[in-house]
Amino acid sequence: IPYLALSAAHLLSPTGQCLPFDGSANGFVPGEGVGVVLLRPLAQAMATGNHIYAVILDSAVNNNGKSLSITTANKEAQIDLLTSAWNIPGFDPSSLSYIETNGTGTVIGDLLELKAIASALACHGSRNACSLGSVKKNIGHLLSAAGIASFIKVVLSLHHKQIPPLNCQHPTADFDFQKSQFCLDDKARVWKSPQGVRRAGINSFGDGGTNCHMVLEEFVPPY
Q1: Does the CA dihedral 84-191-176-27 come out positive or negative?
Q2: Has this prediction a pTM greater than 0.90?
Q3: What is the 3-state secondary structure (H, E, C) of 136-198?
Q4: Phi then psi dihedrals of residue 144, to 5 deg
Q5: Helix (H, G, I), strand (E, B) or coil at 203
Q6: pLDDT (tens digit per residue) in 72-111
Q7: CA-CA distances (angstroms) from residue 88 to 93, 95, 127?
Q8: How far apart are CA 149 and CA 38, in angstroms?
Q9: 85 in helix, strand or coil?
Q10: Which H or E run includes 213?
């Protein structure tokens, strides 16, 4: 228990600000929350006339395996995770125009996540622009509710066809955003997709090395 407390404590932001992918990032900010969603098979939801906010295409979970500590990310495990989640018949990862990252505001963790996403997209030949976000910038790290917070954010973003801003004022110099396909939006904008349908990925990583990724797309009524 003392080891767990020490591992988490040294990652806390001393300024109380969560700044994902920012050069001023110095740790995460804890928060509290709970989220509830109703999931149904798409055919059942359509048949009963439910209001459908978004569609889950696929998801994947893995574990970092051996790493330096319970809070140390593993880039290769994250690449494997994304590749597994994107292994959907007929799915093209270049159709992802937004990724809600784990984005905790920790220097090493955020950098490894950026490199993992970039590598996974490159493996699939994707060069389309892709916006990045992290709800932790707005409400902090909700610990066990962090994943559902990210999920709800993306569902509502798809529903309203809007990409919310990340407001990263000073992108970290440790990653070359200029040569990447990533966009760090400083204001909300209309969500447009080069392939006609809006799709997003969600990363959610936990202490102990558990990694989860989910692929969502907007619901288009079959008229």
Answers
A1: negative
A2: yes
A3: HHHHCECHHHHHHHHHHHHHHHHHHCEECCCCCCCECCCCCHHHCCEECCCCCEECCCCCCCC
A4: -70, -15
A5: strand
A6: 789 999 999 999 999 999 999 999 999 999 999 999 999 9
A7: 9, 12, 19
A8: 14
A9: helix
A10: strand 210-217
